[in-house]
Amino acid sequence: MQNKVFKDYLFITIGILLVAIAVEYLYAPNNLAAGGVTGLAIVINHYIPFASTGTLVLIMNIILFIIAFIFIGGNFGAKTIYASFGLSLIMWIIERFFYPQALTHDLIIAAIFGTFLSAIGMAIVFNANASTGGTDIIAKILNKFFHVDIGKSLSSVDFIVTLLAAITFGLNAGLYALLSVILNGIAIDRVIEGFNTSKQLTIISSKNKEIGQFIMNGLGRGCTFLKGVGGYTGKETFIIYTVVSRAEFIKLREYIKSIDSKAFITVGEAHEVLGEGFKEISNT
């Protein structure tokens, strides 16, 4: 259990570090306010430059958490609080000690690679059952008091931030920021799917008992035997159904090949698997 907690916080730290790098080296120097609290901080920093982006994110998160505690309760979880304030701290450290400069002044390159880094970082954080607070809190407040769906609330907040960016930095920067927001949502979904993708297999073989034993004892996974009847032979048989990781699939395929070269296997991708041996249902 302690290893799981340590692993989650380690991944959250890596995730917020990637987001901070995207903001400090690609978004902020190019005035790309790509939604969320960090985007709003970039806009505000333009008007009060003596306040760093990291400091503004920290102040806004504190205010939002206080408002949320008062109006919607304090059910955030330690991971979200850690991710939220950890992101602000990392951004402050980068600004205070590393004096970040733009890696590129080409807006489209900054938008694409900023989105790429940010999406990977956010996906890592989300995959550890946390979030960076900020925009999520605003969305929950809008949902509670104005009955706007969470998804629409998030989109509305990001749209308002990019509109402010267009007013502050010009239409060109605003449109690139909007492009980053759109791509970011798509990219986060794809990255999370990649993290959680498993292989689901159905196996028909005369060696079904041996294969079942290998799955349970050799791989430590479960499997289900389904009764079936061959359409051509009319003989009863057992079909094995199992879900394994990519690495386990390779081992299982090689084992089946070694004992029954005539086995029939179908392989599909499962983008999310919940239950014993995978992600716990209670954590979703």
From TrEMBL:
<dbReference type="InterPro" id="IPR015867">
    <property type="entry name" value="N-reg_PII/ATP_PRibTrfase_C"/>
</dbReference>
<keyword id="KW-0812">Transmembrane</keyword>
<keyword id="KW-1133">Transmembrane helix</keyword>
<feature type="domain" description="DUF2179">
    <location>
        <begin position="221"/>
        <end position="275"/>
    </location>
</feature>
<dbReference type="InterPro" id="IPR003740">
    <property type="entry name" value="YitT"/>
</dbReference>
<dbReference type="Pfam" id="PF02588">
    <property type="entry name" value="YitT_membrane"/>
</dbReference>
<feature type="transmembrane region" description="Helical">
    <location>
        <begin position="159"/>
        <end position="183"/>
    </location>
</feature>
<dbReference type="Pfam" id="PF10035">
    <property type="entry name" value="DUF2179"/>
</dbReference>
<feature type="transmembrane region" description="Helical">
    <location>
        <begin position="55"/>
        <end position="74"/>
    </location>
</feature>
<keyword id="KW-0472">Membrane</keyword>
<dbReference type="GO" id="GO:0005886">
    <property type="term" value="C:plasma membrane"/>
</dbReference>
<dbReference type="InterPro" id="IPR019264">
    <property type="entry name" value="DUF2179"/>
</dbReference>
<dbReference type="InterPro" id="IPR051461">
    <property type="entry name" value="UPF0750_membrane"/>
</dbReference>
<feature type="transmembrane region" description="Helical">
    <location>
        <begin position="80"/>
        <end position="99"/>
    </location>
</feature>
<feature type="transmembrane region" description="Helical">
    <location>
        <begin position="9"/>
        <end position="26"/>
    </location>
</feature>
<feature type="transmembrane region" description="Helical">
    <location>
        <begin position="32"/>
        <end position="48"/>
    </location>
</feature>
<feature type="transmembrane region" description="Helical">
    <location>
        <begin position="106"/>
        <end position="126"/>
    </location>
</feature>
<keyword id="KW-1003">Cell membrane</keyword>
<protein>
    <recommendedName>
        <fullName>DUF2179 domain-containing protein</fullName>
    </recommendedName>
</protein>
